[in-house]
Amino acid sequence: MRLSRLHPVFPVVKLQLAEDDPFPTRPRHEEPPPVLGQGEGEEWEVEEILDAKMRYRSVWFRVRWKGYDPSHDQTLRSGLEVALTAMAQMQAKRDLHSTMLAPGTSMGDHIARMRSLWQRANEVGAAISDADFVSTFIGSLGEEWDAVVPLLYGMKTSVEVISFVTMHAARLDN
Question: Where is the Chromo domain (predicted)?
């Protein structure tokens, strides 16, 4: 019986140092450093609150960190003052995104409601840009507007989109 077959052996002389970066052409995701906060320890900036739930008598948030991809999303328990602000922002965004043009509602009323919700969301710190509002507004219109949706997405500002929709709605009403 040969003992050399019991334990595989590799000669150390044949070992080489590994390259610093074995995949130099692969894109790197440089993660931002932590933000130095007022308190102790490191802090990171929150890009978006994705979800919130009550668990064990406290609010838990699903958080996306600014500068990081979705694989770094975390569920965290938050303090009350932060929780109230984050909940208000998330609820304002949900209200805006869930508003649809109801049958029988005038376009003027719908536009006023959407603008009011957008303003309220930004007042609580949701930071919804003009471009995001345009997408949300177009999505709120309904199937009867599908023929003009490509034209609307070609427009740059919410003022242009709302002006066009107002004129088009007036033509449809006559």
Answer: 44-75
Write the CB contacts of 34 (distance below 8 Å, at least 6 apart in sequence). Answer: 42, 43, 44
What is the rounded distance in angstroms from the CA atom of residue 92 to the CA atom of residue 126? 7
Q: Which amino acid is at 129?
A: S
Are 121 and 136 spatial neighbours (Cβ–Cβ below 8 Å)?
no
Distance CA(122)–CA(165), nearest Å, equals: 23
Closest CA to 48 of 33, 70, 32, 29: 70
* Residues, the chain: 174
Q: Whole-angstrom Cα distance, residue 129 to residue 139?
A: 15
At the topology level, CATH places domain 43-78 in OB fold (Dihydrolipoamide Acetyltransferase, E2P) (2.40.50)
- pLDDT score for 9: 79
Q: Over the range 155-167, which residues count as b (16 or more CB within 10 Å of their CB) and which as e?
A: beebeebbeebee
* Stretch among 100-104, 110-114, 135-139 having the lowest mean pLDDT: 100-104
Residue 20 and residue 61 in contact, taking contact as beta carbons nearer than 8 Å: no
